[in-house]
Amino acid sequence: MEIDNKKKLVSPTGVDVNTGLLHGSAFIKSPNYDVRKPGDTPELIVVHSISLPPNQFGGNAITQLFTNTLNPDEDPYFETIQHLKVSSHLLIRRDGAVIQYVPFHLRAWHAGVSEFEGRTACNDFSIGIELEGTDTTCYTASQYKALANVIKQLWQAYPSLSEHKVAGHDEIAPGRKTDPGVYFMWEALDRLLDTVD
User: Fold this and answer.
1) Residue 14, strand partner residues
2) CB under 8 Å to 141, separation ≥6 — which residues?
3) Closest CA to 27 of 116, 104, 140
4) pLDDT in tens, 104-148
5) Which residues are known to be catalytic?
């Protein structure tokens, strides 16, 4: 699956609350989503990391995973995960490019068994953002900038995110998940979020 590089390098400029899409990002629809339950609105942003094959960057394997088109012949690791039905709302590549897979008003399948502040099933009330990276690699300045920009746009678009709750996958699934990992600099993200554009 080819992605239009020119399109995906455009900076996000806002969220269309009618479609749940981020302006300026590439949109590749994942089949792995469902409708949120009545009354469930986005109240939490969950930061993840992913690399496919593990510890390798670039290529289309992440998109293939999220669209159920992963070819098990391309890498031995893919044989172990090709059966998974997973998705995230967004992926931020190493260069800061943003790809959207699931509209924000729909429920992406990114959190799994999870709990935040006593509430389980975080997929029901969260937006999942994947960073192309690993637990043992520093993230790029472009990724932090893009992530902060996206979060600010989401805060503006969805009043239900008014408490500005942002958590790592490791925080909502401790012991089961470790991403975005110790190399993710929450202080750097906080500084960017505090900056007025």
Assistant:
1) 23
2) none
3) 104
4) 999 999 999 999 999 999 999 999 999 999 999 999 999 999 999
5) 130
Q: How far apart are CA 23 and CA 11, in angstroms?
A: 8
Q: Where are the beta strands (DSSP E) in the chain?
A: 14-16, 21-23, 26-27, 33-35, 44-50, 90-92, 98-100, 106-108, 115-116, 119-120, 126-132, 166-168
Nearest to 90 by CA among 62, 117, 70, 71: 62
Strand, helix or coil at 142?
helix
CATH architecture assignment, domain 34-52+88-194: 3-Layer(aba) Sandwich (3.40)
Tell me the one-letter amino acid at 80. T
List, for residues 20-71, the tens digit of each pLDDT value. Answer: 999 999 999 999 999 999 999 999 999 999 999 999 999 999 999 999 999 9
- Domain spans in the chain, listed from the N-terminal domain onward: 34-52+88-194
* Farthest CA pair distance, the chain: 47
